[in-house]
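User: I'm writing a tutorial on reading structure tokens. Could you give me a worked example: one chain, its sequence, then its tokens, then a sentence or two explaining what the tokens reveal?
Assistant: Sure. Here is the example chain.
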Amino acid sequence: MAICENCGKRNVIGRSQKHRRGVAGKRWKKKAQATPRTFKANIQNATVILAGKLKVMKLCTKCIKRFKKEGKIKSFRKTQSVGSPV
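And here are its predicted structure tokens:
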């Protein structure tokens, strides 16, 4: 499971429910059941300047946007994970 190293955002389990229309009297004929699903955080590898040194961190997109605004990320580029072919 991916976790943001800055804010700790992670995947969350919730429920989704489909709405099924009733008959013409606007009443529910049968209510659809709620099914479990996962809400996944958008986690990406980013190179960040911390204490004058470059460091590769796993960040959510909200933190990447915040770091860009603070100037900790000059130009964002995705870094390849170790072991993946280039």
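What the tokens reveal: The longest helix spans residues 61-70. The chain has a mean pLDDT of 80.
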